[in-house]
Amino acid sequence: MNRSFQVDLRGVVDLLSQHLYSSPRVYVRELLQNAVDAVTARRAADDAAPAGIAIDVAGGTLRITDTGIGLSEAQVHELLATIGRSSKRDELGYGRRDFLGQFGIGLLSAFLVADETRVVTRSATGAPAVSWTGRADGTYAVGPGERDTIGTTVTLTARRGAEQWFVPETVVDLATLYGSMLPFEITVNGKAISGPGVPWQADERSPGHRSADLVGYAQEVLGFTPFDIVDLDVPEAGLTGVAYVLPFPANPAEQAGHRVYLKRMLLAENAPGLLPDWAFFARCVVDTGELRPTASREALYDDDQLAATREALGEQLRGWLVGLSATNPQRLNQFLKIHHLGVKALALHDDDMLRLVDEWWPLETNVGRMTLAEFRARYGVLRYCATADEFDQLAGVAAAQNLPVINGGYTYDSELVERVRALEPEVRVDRLDPSDLTTAFADLDPDTALAVRPFVAAAQRCVDRLGCEVVVREFEPASLPVLYLVDRAAAFAGELRATKETVDELWAGVLSAFEKPERDRPQLVLNYRNPLVRRISRLENAELTALAVESLYGQALLLGRHPIRPADSALLNRAFLSLLDHAVPNGEN
Ligand SMILES: Nc1ncnc2c1ncn2[C@@H]1O[C@H](COP(=O)(O)OP(=O)(O)OP(=O)(O)O)[C@@H](O)[C@H]1O
Q1: Which PANTHER family match (predicted)?
Q2: Residues with beta carbon inside 6 Å of ligand 1?
Q3: How do residues 124-179 score in pLDDT, each as one tens digit?
Q4: For residue 344, is pLDDT > 80?
């Protein structure tokens, strides 16, 4: 024998309230939506039929009346009293595109705030009016109804504890939130809450007037004055709307939320996933006829159609950016000042955006700020420092050697410099290795080299235990006495040595296997063009020579922002105090 499922309505309502809907407030939306669908259904057959929806709320009772299609007694049993049954799906079970509802559960949300739902309805088919009362305990009663005109009235009385959702001001706010863009006249306690439609529609307004309205909308609803407004249109998704470009930098890591209307009814104020991640500089307000809602009706269903729409919207924003570069470079520069991080992140994967950055975003270089395109055109090669510290240390010296260098230390800049090859495969890109500079330094003439040899040997003895090699060269700027140069291999060897000093014997042995030969030692390059270095090289007093070399070593470390190891800081301390000792006249005590 076949039996029917039994439904425990309280259990289902609990499920809805705790797991589906974020707040009981959605009951207003569901009632409004049913009324809109009923009016739509009636007008599909008779486009002269009245289209009015009135909400009246007072004393804890809310009544919503529509001039919609109404229900016959048979339909009341089938549609109101059967959970999951909807008149808004086709034979295959797909939601029909004219209607907002599709799941057949919305009316249950009334039980989030009331114990009883009363419906009085008169069908457009001419059937007599019916009255239906559904109760939260899962029972319902049907009888003849009192109603002269075609349409439906749903009445709810607040359950104890749910009175807050029946306060007239709250209901006005909720109905306005959900329904202000709906195409029918909707009133709450006699006051109209529906407006002139979507603010981006093309109508008789002048373009200036329209954009002023759109700015006003952003200020009022989103709380900012947009940098720019981009019209959006994806016919496949029945989507129209606008993207507001943010006037302030947004965090690229944060998923941006968008205001989404579904067939003119608010779906979500903060729906994620509508734009590609890179477009975090825009907030959209859109209306879509085709994208599907989740059952809670609070987000978009993440399916292939949403993915295709996301891509199409991304294209439209990309088009706006590229268009701006062609028509209004100054404005593009202002945009980049606010949103360069996002655009650069995008340029890592996207050639159009890379072109934009290449041509328009000025980078820091040791010959002034300029774009990559300009740098390339002037100097042929894109030479860059990969970190800001390296740039700070080497920019001045490199400039004096006529070596233009880009600071690649800012977020994404090094990767972007390397990526320029995607645009111009021929371009030369060089990462500046500090050791490259030494080849640009001049050797001393043979006589001078011979003369300073004892000094170099003494200096080497001083810094030997610190693991570096002393060389004397001549280079510009002459005002710079000393440079501590670590090439990348030496930097690695240095880190290894530091680790070895802090780990136990076994690991020190293992790490030794990675150690490079001596020639990778960092270099302490003394500048013979510097008068102080010359004087030091001629000192007779061995103790003072050592002290001077140690001080130069310490200064070079500090200038280049190199890591200071315990041995270095001990040396710095000692050298500083001894220098003071030499400098301060010896008094009585
Ligand atoms: N005001 C109304 N006028 C006419 N019919 C209505 C009205 N309200 C509800 N109905 C009927 O009751 C059915 C069930 O409504 P319910 O709100 O539970 O689901 P739905 O609107 O079909 O889908 P969803 O769960 O997505 O809202 C509707 O499909 C509709 O046929």
Answers
A1: HEAT SHOCK PROTEIN 90 FAMILY MEMBER (PTHR11528)
A2: 30, 33-35, 38, 66, 68-71, 79-80, 86-88, 101-107, 152
A3: 999 999 999 999 988 999 999 999 999 999 999 999 999 999 999 999 999 999 99
A4: yes
Which residue, judged by its Cα, is nearest atom 19 of ligand 1?
Answer: 104
Q: Would you tell me which CATH number, out of the four given (1.10.260.40, 3.30.230.80, 3.40.50.300, 3.50.50.60), belongs to the domain 207-326? A: 3.30.230.80
On the question of pLDDT at 35 being above 80, the answer is yes
CB atoms within 10 A of CB 90: 10
* Of residues 121, 171, 159, 153, the one with CA closest to residue 10: 159
Quickly name the fold that domain 9-192 has.
Heat Shock Protein 90 (3.30.565)
Extended strands (E) in 29-71: 52-58, 61-66
Please say whether the structural domain 441-486+522-583 has been given the CATH code 1.20.120.790. yes
Q: Are 70 and 122 in contact (CB under 8 A)?
A: yes
Q: Which atom from ligand 1 is nearest to the alpha carbon of 297? A: 26
Cα 586 to its chain centre, rounded Å, is 65
171 closest CA partner among 31, 364, 1 = 31
The boundaries of every CATH 3.30.230.80 domain in the chain are 207-326
pLDDT at 34 over 80: yes
Q: Ligand 1: which atom is nearest the Cα of residue 64?
A: 1
* DSSP β-bridge partners for residue 74: none
Task: Give tens-digit pLDDT for 274-324.
Answer: 998 878 899 999 999 999 998 888 889 999 999 999 999 999 998 998 898
* Averaged pLDDT of the chain: 89
483-497 pLDDT per residue, tens: 888 876 665 566 666
**What is the value of ipTM here, to two decimals?**
0.98
Q: Which residues are annotated as a binding site?
A: 30, 34, 66, 152
More confident residue, 203 or 161: 161
Instruction: List, by residue range, all CATH 3.30.565.10 domains of the chain.
Output: 9-192
- Cα(38) to centroid(ligand 1), Å: 8
Interior angle at CA 12, CA 6 and CA 15, nearest 5? 150
**Predicted pLDDT at 400:** 80
Closest residue to atom 30 of ligand 1, CA basis: 87
Which ligand 1 atom is at minimum distance from the Cα of 70?
Answer: 4
* Closest to 257 (Cα-Cα) out of 221, 220, 228, 229: 221
Cα–ligand 1 centroid distance for 238 (angstroms): 23
